[in-house]
Structure to design on (526 residues):
């Protein structure tokens, strides 16, 4: 299962999104998500006195670093702010620890071959060090963090930590790892398959200066499996070629640093692709006539990457009958699985109940924002990400219309958090496409309300949302109602950023089922 999406803090709305460039083989933790987490925790803390003054200084330093394009310093200041919010002192040692990073040519690795990694620094910390630095490298099984009160998960995490395997101690580590990264070659032949965490601890003599980790996926024989899929894709019919090639394409992009490994299940994705190879023998299309929940893939032109999208086809679907379609947009940090695996898995159940088709695109990247300019980013990388994010949504819509008998008068767009931001942005840009909208915990540009005033909308927000302030929805709804738009607004007293979604999903789908382009309804509420 995938983790519930997290969305941007309202105070980030005017800040650019800065992602690490492709200079290294794997992506650092997404800086947008780090910023969101920091700002959300800070908002909940409501700091006063000395702590507030310290955090104000951190925020100023972050703003200065963003303006100068110094992403390493942004990461340093976020680490400092998180340390202060955790009621800990920001010391030279914590400064040094936060500077460390492990980099490699592959984060999805075949354990049958030697594995090269580098110990580096994101920024130069203000720390005095001796020349006698060493590093101890180890590996352990990756276990998802335990939820509060989940004793079994906590015990599993503790047991995994105790099963750490040493991969060696290396001396000659440079004091300046930006200038002189420290290269190592590791033997993973005795490591079991699965998601692992590599750790490199740096020591000054016997004193630990801190450690850094890197998530990797280990699979013996991986290279041969990927080669077999590539060969099968070349001879497959165009209908399933991208579905077969997807795991290899995604892993290639992870290793090139374009995307994070995140929760991509290497073994499961390879197994699904192998099953498609089997089902496509003899030129068959294993997806033809398929109902229920499944994932598809296609090559996004221009980006030259294979995109995943999740599909739900109701059991009663008949190609002879035009069928309503719901396009679902996930929140920041989530992916195409969000509206299927999260929210108590309610959306596909509601799609089945109402006889809707449902499709959920990735949106090119987990932080693509579907082409919305609400983050105010102006750099070329951010513009490219936004353009392809929007294009991905439109391509998935095109593919659904090509594969199914989609009722053009009942195409609906829904989203949570970043997905709600995208919902309003795409509604304003393509108002003739959508029969109705649903926006949970979002924000947008009230100046665009006139462009989408003819589209019926169902909007939900909690008034205790520390991630996206409720004013985001209030302002949008207010602007729409001034234009006499059909808007149903549900503001949940005490509602947080995520807990408002599931209780209001049934009503949202009921709202959608009553909407058809060109047909007036009486669902409007004041």
């Amino acid at each position: 299962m995938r983790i519930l999406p997290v969305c941007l803090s309202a105070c980030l709305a005017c800040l650019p999104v800065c992602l690490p460039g492709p200079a290294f083989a794997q992506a650092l933790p997404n800086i947008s998500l780090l910023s969101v987490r920091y700002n959300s925790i800070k908002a909940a803390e409501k700091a006063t006195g000395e702590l507030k003054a310290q955090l104000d200084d951190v925020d100023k330093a972050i703003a200065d670093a963003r303006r100068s394009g110094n992403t390493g310093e942004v990461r340093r200041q976020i680490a400092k702010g998180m340390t202060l919010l955790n009621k800990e002192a920001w010391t030279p040692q914590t400064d040094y620890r936060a500077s460390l990073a492990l980099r490699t040519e592959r984060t999805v690795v075949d354990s049958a071959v030697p594995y090269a990694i580098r110990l580096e620094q994101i920024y130069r910390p203000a720390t005095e060090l001796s020349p006698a630095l060493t590093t101890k490298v180890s590996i352990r099984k990756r276990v998802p963090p335990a939820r509060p009160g989940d004793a079994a998960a906590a015990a599993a995490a503790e047991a995994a930590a105790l099963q750490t395997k040493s991969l060696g101690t290396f001396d000659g580590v440079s004091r300046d790892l930006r200038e002189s990264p420290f290269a190592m070659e590791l033997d993973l032949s005795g490591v079991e398959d699965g998601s692992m965490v590599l750790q490199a601890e740096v020591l000054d003599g016997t004193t630990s200066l801190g450690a850094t980790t890197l998530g990797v996926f280990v699979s013996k024989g991986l290279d041969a499996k990927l080669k077999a899929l590539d060969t099968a894709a070349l001879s497959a019919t165009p209908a399933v070629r991208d579905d077969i090639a997807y795991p290899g394409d995604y892993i290639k992009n992870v290793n090139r640093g374009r995307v994070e490994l995140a929760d991509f299940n290497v073994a499961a994705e390879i197994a699904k692709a192998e099953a498609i190879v089997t089902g496509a023998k003899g030129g068959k299309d294993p997806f033809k006539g398929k109902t229920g929940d499944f994932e598809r893939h296609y090559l996004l032109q221009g980006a030259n990457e294979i995109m995943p999208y999740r599909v739900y086809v109701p059991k009663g679907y008949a190609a002879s009958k035009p069928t309503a379609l719901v396009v679902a947009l996930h929140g920041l940090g989530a992916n195409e699985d969000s509206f299927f695996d999260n929210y108590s898995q309610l959306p596909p159940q509601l799609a089945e109940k109402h006889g809707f088709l449902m499709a959920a695109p990735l949106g090119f990247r987990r932080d693509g924002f579907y082409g919305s300019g609400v983050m105010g980013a102006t750099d070329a990388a951010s513009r490219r990400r936004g353009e392809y994010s929007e294009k991905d949504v439109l391509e998935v819509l095109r593919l659904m219309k090509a594969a199914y008998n989609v009722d053009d008068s009942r195409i609906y767009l829904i989203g949570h958090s970043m997905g709600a931001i995208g919902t309003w942005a795409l509604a304003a840009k393509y108002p003739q496409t959508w029969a109705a909208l649903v926006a949970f915990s979002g924000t947008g540009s009230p100046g665009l309300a006139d462009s989408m005033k003819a589209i019926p909308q169902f909007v939900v927000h909690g008034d205790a949302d520390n991630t996206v302030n409720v004013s985001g929805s209030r302002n949008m709804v207010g602007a729409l109602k001034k234009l006499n738009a059909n808007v149903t607004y549900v503001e949940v007293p005490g509602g947080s950023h995520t807990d408002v979604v599931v209780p209001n999903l049934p009503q949202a789908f009921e709202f959608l089922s009553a909407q058809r382009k060109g047909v007036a309804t009486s669902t409007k509420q004041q």
The longest strand covers residues 207-218. Residues 239 and 285 are 7 Å apart (CA to CA). Confidence is low (pLDDT under 50) at residues 1-25, 520-526.
